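Re: Re: ligand-bound prediction request (bumping)

Still looking for help on this. To restate: I need the protein modeled with N,N-dimethyl-L-histidine bound, output as structure tokens. Inputs repeated here so nobody has to scroll up.
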Amino acid sequence: MLIQLETEHFNIEYLQPLETTKEVNHSLGQDIKEGLNQGIKKIPSKYFYDDQGSQLFEQICELSEYYPTRTEASILRQYADEIAEITGICELIELGSGSSTKTRLLLDAYNQQNEVFKYMPIDVSAGILKESAIQLKQDYNSLQIQGLVGTYDQALTQLKPTSWPARMIFFLGSSIGNFSESDYDNFLKKIAQVLENGDYFLLGIDLQKPKSILEAAYNDSQGVTAAFNLNMLTHLNHKFEGDFDINYFKHQAIYNEKNNQIEMYLLSEKEQEISIKNLDLVVNLEKGEKILTEISRKFDVEETKQKLESQQLKPVKVFTDENNWFALMLCQAVK
Ligand code: AVI
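Reply:
Sorry for the wait, this slipped through. Here it is.
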């Protein structure tokens, strides 16, 4: 059944759950069980994002040490018009739209070009989607908004054909850096599948740079990233009746230069036994043992071009900032 919330200004649709074992297992927290039962313990990074975690992430984006958000915004400020000129009129689809703040830079460019245009924000949070749709509608009169509530997987399998001349799917913020290599490949495969020949894909990627800059970005001096990391445990306590005591865990973020990735851990400060009642799980941690909570991969432009090309996504133009810290890759589907 399709649940729709329609107003005269915008429309928000809830996507159907996918009946895959993966998704069902994840909704029951089986992914936590699997992660904590491994040799090197892990908790999937999606558990950062309860309301508190989402707010902390917004605060991270404002930090002086956390350069990705403002660098990507500066690239969009400089090149959004050129992107809109290259793609021409198209339906804009954003994966993980959040508050759509940076998106406004793109919307401004498309607004100037077209009388009417369409934006489809996709996010797991219906609240954020609705709030930002209300704001956007006030500022962009001729914008058609159709929000989709759901995950990337749901959105990419349930997108309907469009009546617009073309589409551009965009995925900003280097969120792709949080995917494992195989999830990265599968994601690009799905993007290529849903795009028609000639449609566009705009991808934001954080680039490789000196360790000192990267480690500062993930170990900020105000401790916001530490609070974000620790909040994952509080989230699990609420969601699954866990008994993590965050006073006995410490945030750690290191840059693994071999794999070109930041690795974020929660370090157990003592030997302890954790119980997560609703998952029927007891976890024993040694003093100093680490739980991996996130990887944030840092990319190389040439390698990324090759990867995109191998998935039938032909790079059209790469936009970067003056330091080459971040890039927006504009690609076109070739079928
Ligand atoms: C959402 N994602 C792209 C952020 C990143 O930089 O990998 C998440 C984050 N983790 C710590 N700080 C920011």
